[in-house]
Amino acid sequence: MPDMALDRKISLPAGQKISQVVDVAGAAPSDAAAMRTEEAEMTTAIHIQGLTKDYGCSRGLFHLGLEVEAGEVFGYLGPNGAGKTTTIRLLMGLIRPTAGRAEVFGLDCWARSVEVKRLVGHVPGELPQFGGLRGREIVAYLGAMAGGISAERVKAISNRLQLDVSQRYRDYSSGNKQKLALVLAFMHQPRLLILDEPTSGLDPLNRQEFHSMLKEEREAGATVFISSHILSEVEHCCDRVAIIRAGRLVKVAGLQELHDIRIAGAHVVNLSSHEPSLEETFLQYYEGDGWKAPKEVATC
Ligand SMILES: Nc1ncnc2c1ncn2[C@@H]1O[C@H](COP(=O)(O)OP(=O)(O)OP(=O)(O)O)[C@@H](O)[C@H]1O
Ligand SMILES: [Mg+2]
Known about the structure:
The chain is an alpha/beta fold. The chain is 35% helix and 21% strand. It has a domain at 30-127 and 184-264 and 271-287: P-loop containing nucleotide triphosphate hydrolases (Rossmann fold, 3-Layer(aba) Sandwich), CATH 3.40.50.
């Protein structure tokens, strides 16, 4: 999704009305969708090296190194204030790194942020202010900035999420604002989806619909980088996860590895013991200094 920086109000090019910006129905297939095919052979979607955003007082993100392969669904986890949104804002070129670099499909996220924004479908952690614009006007404007979108696709996604795009943004409930953010992220068939807590505020039915959409995008070859606090969601849809705490990476692992850790780390005290849940494994990383063996599990 194009730049949806916090509190930024969208403004039209001089002399243009929103209805003149794009005829969504007549738009050409998006650049992002075309490039997805063209550059499918590129194997690294996200490359992060020594990435730091120092807000002072030990707050921010420090020396992050990560690699996400094309086609992966990569979960990004951590407690409140860990640095997830900061990482995502750096990836979207919305803030400048203090040190280090991040690349999306070989493009420097800060130096080439315009191209990066065209390639990426982004759900921001905090939704921007679109004031009294109607959903369909926001879609048309940002669709034009993304290089053109298909009206059928917008209609299909908004129907799936049961979003009325004729309503004004300020009249949407918070769940409906989140649905609009999803429409904006998915509408141009991006090669890479960078999603900051995308299911925040969605009811269970819409969350399920979102998971189906994610599965379809993945099958079509997209890469997904998703931050979430919903551990069952991560377990359900991710291949690998990274866990950060206090701005520092503490663990990168495949889901299978985390499952193995929880099984290997459990001390079976009697036949009625239960193995620790994946949530307990995550919490070990959230709370402690790296991995500690799980405590003995209580008997049921
Ligand atoms: N613009 C800013 N100025 C100063 N400090 C900031 C700024 N943005 C974020 N921080 C700080 O950086 C740290 C990481 O914040 P961030 O929003 O990235 O966390 P998060 O992992 O997304 O948390 P949450 O799960 O609550 O969304 C926090 O300590 C936060 O207070
Ligand atoms: Mg956040």
